[in-house]
Amino acid sequence: WKMRPIECCAGTFMNNLSCWLDYWFQKLKHLIPSYIKDSSALIQQLHSLGNLPPNARLGTGDAISMYTNIDTDHAIAVITTWLCHLANQHLLPSNPIKFPTNAVIAPM
User: Fold this and answer.
1) CB–CB of 89/67 below 8 Å?
2) 99 with 93: CB under 8 angstroms?
């Protein structure tokens, strides 16, 4: 388990890069099978299950300090694998103006 300091990087290159990545990754979140847009979408999915057994239970959780506990090397490896998979399945926009696939994948 690695610890990383939390540093403010507002107005720096890292902040701009972070905003850029967030912008493009937001366009891909619908491709994540476990992605649920909001609580209304969750309720709709739960209703679509129909009648559940009487002993069915719903569990919830809350992430605490999620981003500060993510191992950076592991995250980069997983994101790289995911982006390569999406590219191989032709699920990323082919027009580099619409999605800078090579700029995201190549440095990784």
Assistant:
1) no
2) yes
